[in-house]
Amino acid sequence: MMLFLSLSYLVMNIEFAIIQIPTIGYNPPDSKEVIPLITGLTIGHNLMTRLNYVMGDIVVVWRAWVLFPQSLAVKVTLSICLLGSFVGASVDMGVLAKRVIENFNDTGSKTTFITLAVSLIFTNFTATVLIGFKAWHYFQSIRRNLGSTTGSPGKVLKILLLLMESGLLYLAFWIGYLVLGLTQGGGSIAGQAYLVVMPGLVAIYPILIILAVAHENNKPEIRASKSEVHHSESGGESQVAFPAASINNSTEVKGNEIEIVPRLS
C-alpha cells in the first residue's frame, strides 16, 4: 500500500514538473488550461502524502500494539492516537485543498503545519514510550529472574531497544518538520525540501526497521563465560560448572588421576 502511494506521489510530481515546463517558455499555453491541471495535481500528490503519513502511523502503532496483547488500556490509547492522526491528516488535507482551489500559489501560513504535525507527533511519541516501557519491564524481569550477569543482552531486549531508538529518530524528524514550519513556513527553500523528503522517509522507514530487526535476529547468541554463575528461573539456585568427578567411599581423586582404594571391612 505504501509502495503504491509513494509511486503515485512520484508520478504526480513528475507530471507536475512536465506541465510547468511550457509555462516558462517563449510561447506559454493558456493559463486557464494549465491552472486546473496544476491545482488537481497539487491536491492529488498532497493527498498521497497524507495517506502515506497515516499508513506510517499504522505501522508505528502496530509495533506497540503487538507488545501488549492483553492490555485493553494500551489498545484503547493507541486506537485514540491513530484516530487522532487520521483526523489531523483529514483536516489538514481539507484546509489545503480549499486553499489551493482559491489560489494554487498559496503555500499557507506558519500555523498550517500544527494540525498535521502535532497529531502525528503525539501518536509516535505514545507508541515509542510504550515500546520503551516494554523494554524496561523486560530488562527488569531478566534482572529479577537471572540476576546481574556480565553477558550481553538477549536478542529480544536488543530488538526492543532498536524499535525504541528508531521511534525516537522518526519522532525527531517530525519535530523538525513542525519547528521548521513554524519558524520559516512552507514557502522557504528548507520547508519545500523537507516536504519533499518526508513522504519518502515515511515510506522507507518501516522497511529499514524490518531489515534491521531481521539482521539483529540472525546474529548468533553470545555465550556467557565459563566462570559465570547461571541462575535458574524456577528455583533461583546457582549452578556452577566443576570438573566432572564422582567421589564415594571407594574412590579417591588426585588431580586428573583416579586411584582405587580398597574398601575396609
How is this structure best described in words?
Strand 3 (251-254) and strand 4 form a beta hairpin. Helix 2 (31-65) runs antiparallel to helix 3, helix 4 (112-146) runs antiparallel to helix 5 (155-184) and helix 5 (155-184) runs antiparallel to helix 6 (189-217). This protein is 68% helix and 5% strand. It is elongated and about 80 Å long. With 265 residues, the chain is mainly α. The protein contains six helices and four strands, in the order H-H-H-H-H-H-E-E-E-E. The N and C termini lie far apart (86 Å). It has one domain.
Q: What does the secondary structure layout of this molecule look like, with pairings?
A:
Elements: H1 2-20, H2 31-65, H3 72-102, H4 112-146, H5 155-184, H6 189-217, E1 230-231, E2 238-239, E3 251-254, E4 257-260
Antiparallel strand pairs: 1-2, 3-4
Helix pairs in contact: 1-2, 2-3, 2-4, 2-6, 3-4, 4-5, 5-6
Short description:
This protein has 265 residues and is mainly alpha-helical. It has helices spanning 2-20, 31-65, 72-102, 112-146, 155-184, 189-217, and strands at 230-231, 238-239, 251-254, 257-260.
Q: Radius of gyration over alpha carbons? A: 30 Å
Mean pLDDT: 76
**Beta-strand percentage range:** under 5%
The low-confidence parts are 223-265
What is the CA–CA distance across the termini? 86 Å
> Percent of residues in helical segments?
55-70%
The helix/strand series, from N terminus to C terminus, equals HHHHHHEEEE
Strand order of the largest sheet: 1-2
Largest beta-sheet details? 2 strands, antiparallel
User: How many separate helices?
Assistant: 6
Large-scale geometry: elongated
Counted beta strands:
4
Output the structural class.
mainly alpha
Q: What number of structural domains do the residues give?
A: 1
Oligomeric description of these chains: single chain
Keywords: Membrane, Signal, Transmembrane, Transmembrane helix
Region (Disordered): 225-248
Transmembrane segments: 80-101, 113-136, 156-180, 192-214
Signal peptide: 1-19
